[in-house]
Input
Amino acid sequence: MTKEEYTLLYEKYTAGHCTEQEKELFEAYTDEFALADEPWDTTTLGDEKSIIGRIYNRLQGEIQGKPRTDRFLWYKFSAAAAVLLILGSGLFYYYMNSAGMPVLKDQIAKTNVIKPGSHKAILTLQDGSTIVLDDSRNGIVASQGKTVILKSEDGRIVYNSMAAQPVTEAEEVYNTISTPRGGETQLLLPDGTKVWMNAESTIKFPAVFCSKSRKIELSGEAYLEVAENKNSPFKVLVKGTEVEVLGTHFNINAYGEGRDVNTTLLQGSVRLRNSSRAAMLKPGQSGVSSANGQLTVKYVNVEDAIAWKNGYFVYQDEDIYSIMEKAARWYDVEIEYRGNMKNKGFYGRGQRYENISELLKNLQLTGEVHFKVEGRRVIVMSK
Output
């Protein structure tokens, strides 16, 4: 299909004037983002793959915000629109500028590179001594009684207990692992429970669990895959909320004082309990415990809740303040706002391990905000 034929068919389709045969042809057409007979002007438009990728990310954000019943049709429409946007440099240039988006002289790309976070953590032992784990060599880093603490080649912190029997509560020795801004880590607890810790988070736990129950304390955000033990319930204490499980996979987000504790269940079952209420979660549900004692349960997209653990930023109708708060923790930057950007929802998905410029570019493509980076300060400005 030539450029002219595709353009005419697109116009008829959007106007509702297509025959059934033309409609089928349009919807079956392969979603290409360029046509072979149209050269790309690199001098005017910049790198082709980079620009098209940014448009695609923007359209994908729009698609994610649509009801599932019409996403397929919307995807085809968005893909067609993307093709038309890049049919000619004039139309593309007009589109980008009319939306307030920079085309060539991208100020974000010219700033100093702010790299993403990495494996960083600090271990605090029972006696108060600390070990910076990202500086330590692989192998044994410390010991607590009959428990040896190891750092594996992939950066995980492993608690290897040699105790034949669980200890009593009086014998428990507590350790704390904290991740700074711009850091994350993985942890294997002495019972075999796996923990992924997000940036600016803390977990306090015994080097060997007692026989009656397994208790840990958490602030920040973590994803847990709890080792099953029917005789010893696993409990997470976080800001007045208790999450009790036997063996399950779930995510807890509990950043900031006075904010909600959000628990999302992927597998198994958990019981939430705060000062006034209790609730059981099923897979696919999220329980929100608020500071005033309210406890609500709803179904959510669990993949969004653990996107950080899988290496992605995902935002679904999320305001810029919430998005940039996550960016500040992960990239260890300060955020400054200029102008009112309330009541504006953003949709998108991006790589968590890219430099911050990629996140900012994708957000800037919406035309709602633009950015300026000064050192480790990111200035967010309304359009």
